[in-house]
Specification:
FAD/NAD(P)-binding domain, 12 helices, about 25% strand, five-stranded antiparallel sheet, Enolase-like, domain 1, 3 domains
């Protein structure tokens, strides 16, 4: 399908703002006040162990939760002050589609924005300091995603960093081996991660310790002040909205129940919202090796999956890690990753089995309607079971068939 014409970026951003407004109906001060919550808007700082100050007024309380979030990291490169640049917060205020957009950072934010802007019509170049994109995900799968993005015309320059901005529309890159090159652009998107803004909180006044720019916390999200807790990005853990929700559930339980829950990210999941998506859950291979957990690694191509064939994504692939089974020990799903259209949705059965400590038979025995895309979850288990049949077991099955059929 080939489409010509010019994108009306104003209509695109208006649509985004409209959707955001609908989502935020339950995320604003007025709505919270309606729920009976007292709201004070202003810059808060600790004035004591159980006391904070906002707008010159002090408030004391038994328990305090810090949930101040994070902010985009600033790019500290000579000449950046002369460049029109955006981050993941300001990009939605864009009023003109740049012909050439330079994206700095090959992490989730940079990759997602790069594909979105490319599909809107900008010519994209992504600069990544390392030798791969998405460094926290499985390399075999990120390479597949990289290839799909390159097919769309997105250029990637790996092992490179911005040395300086030579002008408002050009930069000098330094690559591996100290080789330099000039690159031109109309605008820059900075996606080099997020950082915490802790300075204004005056944490020392509350006896809260900070190490390596992160608040020191225990497994209960408690700081070095026993009455102060952290939630969300400020916990310095995994910076996802759903991680913040997870923290909230832990704190809600621990503040109202004698049965305390610990923070455990062994069942955490995330998705890179590109097309195709890359989704990950549970423990990865590095973690399994570090913990000396015995596991079986499964790999499944989508090339023979009927839904993948009809929808043209035979390039897709998934990885699954299973616990070692035995005569009286059931095999369970320890973690996995997938690159495929809607992978974030497709892994949900696997994530449920992982979170609920279910046997792989929970997936194997499920009746999936043909040809839903999530049948691939059953297929990888079925293929594994078939390959696990030894010659002895096959002979035994042949014998029992002759006897009982």
């Amino acid at each position: 399908l080939e489409v010509t014409g010019k994108v009306d970026i104003k209509k695109v951003t208006d649509y985004i703002f409209e959707r955001q407004e609908n989502i935020r109906k339950h995320e604003n001060a007025d709505w919270l006040k309606q729920q009976g919550i007292d709201m004070v808007l202003g810059k808060a700082s600790f004035s004591g162990k159980n006391e904070i100050e906002v707008n010159g007024k002090k408030y004391s309380c038994k328990k305090i939760i810090i949930a101040t979030g994070s902010k985009p990291k600033k790019l500290k490169v000579p000449g950046i002050e002369n460049v029109k640049y955006y981050d993941n917060e300001s990009i939605f205020n864009i009023n003109e589609l740049p012909e050439k957009l330079l994206v700095i950072g090959g992490g989730p934010i940079g990759i997602e924005i790069a594909q979105a802007m490319s599909r809107l019509g900008s010519k994209l170049t992504v600069i990544q300091h390392g030798d791969r994109i998405l460094e926290h995900d499985d390399k075999m799968l990120t390479d597949i995603l990289l290839k799909q993005l390159q097919k769309e015309g997105i250029q990637f320059i790996l092992n490179a960093e911005i040395e300086k901005f030579s002008s408002a529309k050009s930069a000098t890159l330094k690559s591996k081996g100290n080789q330099s090159q000039e690159i031109e652009f109309d605008a820059v998107f900075v996606g080099i991660g997020r950082e915490l803004g802790l300075e204004s909180l005056q944490l020392k006044n509350a006896g809260i310790e900070v190490e390596n720019h992160n608040i020191v916390k225990d497994k209960y999200l408690k700081t070095t002040n026993k009455n102060v807790f952290v939630c969300g990005d400020v916990a310095g853990d995994l910076m996802f909205s759903h991680a913040a929700e997870f923290h909230g559930r832990i704190l809600l339980n621990n503040l109202f129940s004698p049965f305390k829950k610990k923070l455990n990210n062994d069942h955490m999941s995330w998705a890179i919202f590109t097309d195709p998506q890359l989704a990950t859950f549970g423990l990865n291979e590095k973690q399994l090796k570090e913990r000396t957990i015995s596991y079986t690694k499964l790999e499944q191509s989508f090339k023979d999956d009927d839904r993948a064939v009809t929808d043209n994504y035979q390039y897709a692939k998934m990885i699954l890690y299973l616990s070692k089974g035995g005569l009286f020990k059931k095999e369970k799903i320890l973690g996995g990753s997938m690159v495929a259209p809607n992978a974030g949705e497709l892994i949900q059965d696997l994530l449920l089995a992982n979170t609920s400590n279910l046997s792989i038979n929970a997936i194997f025995n499920k009746i999936y309607p043909y040809p839903v895309a999530s049948r691939i979850n059953q297929q990888i288990i079925a293929n594994y079971k078939e390959k696990s049949l030894t010659k002895t077991v096959k002979k035994l099955l042949q014998t029992t068939f002759k006897i009982f059929s």
